[in-house]
Specification:
This protein is mainly α. It is 50% helix and 0% strand.
């Protein structure tokens, strides 16, 4: 199934793939790691420092401030090993609102009548059982 599902989106918001991931109880920390090539080279140095500060410790983040971006990315990868940290886009497991397309007849009055009929049928059955007892 994984080969047929595409969760790539140009915007950072809830994605339909989240419903599949939630249903299957996918633990993304088992499948994605913050590496130099896979993440840190694609974000700013300030973001690297922020991530390390969040996931490891503020002191570790402070050490990265004096480094060049490439060195900071390599050091961040080492510090983040087995941290279980995920970027917001992977942590955001909100399921988007379902949008339904098509024409629906909103016959609220008819639905209310049907609900009353069903309730009356249920009550009649209860009355018949009470009389039989």
């Amino acid at each position: 199934m994984a080969a047929t599902v595409d969760g790539i989106s140009p915007v950072d918001r809830a994605h339909a793939i989240n419903e599949v991931a939630n249903t299957m109880e996918v633990d993304l920390t088992r499948y994605w790691k913050p590496t130099r090539a896979g993440y840190f080279e694609h974000v700013s140095k300030d973001r690297i420092v922020s991530v390390v500060g969040e996931a490891v410790a503020p002191q570790a983040a402070g050490e990265l401030r004096g480094m060049k971006k490439g060195d900071a990315a390599a050091a961040a990868e080492l510090r983040m090993t087995d941290s279980g940290w995920l970027p917001e886009v992977l942590r955001n497991r909100e399921v988007p609102k379902h949008v339904t397309y098509g024409h629906w007849d909103d016959d609220e009055e008819g639905e209310a009548d049907n609900a009353d009929d069903m309730q009356d049928e249920g009550n009649d059955g209860d009355a018949e059982e009470a009389e039989a007892a």
